[in-house]
Write a structure and sequence with these properties.
alpha+beta, two-stranded parallel ribbon, flat
C-alpha cells in the first residue's frame, strides 16, 4: 500500500517515541513516499495549514499512481 506521512513540524507526537518515525520510513512501509513535517502547524496540521496538506496529498496521489476519483 502506498504510504506518506504528513504532520505539523510543531507536533510533539512525532517525537514521542524516539526512532518510531525512522522505523516507519525504513521498515514498516514497503512503498513509502516520504515524510512531510509542515512548518507553522502542530497536531491539527490539516486545519492549521490546509493548503500545504492538500498540496502534499495531491503530490502523493500523483506519485503513487492512485487516482483520487474512482
Amino acid at each position: 500500500m502506498p504510504t506518506a506521512f504528513i504532520a505539523g513540524a510543531a507536533d510533539w507526537g512525532v517525537r514521542q517515541t524516539p526512532g518510531a518515525l525512522e522505523a516507519m520510513t525504513s521498515r514498516a512501509c514497503t512503498k513509502f513516499f516520504g515524510t512531510h513535517l509542515i512548518d507553522g502547524a502542530g497536531h491539527w496540521v490539516q486545519q492549521e495549514q490546509p493548503l500545504a496538506v492538500t498540496r502534499h496529498l495531491l503530490d502523493f496521489l500523483q506519485r503513487a499512481s492512485v487516482s483520487p476519483i474512482p
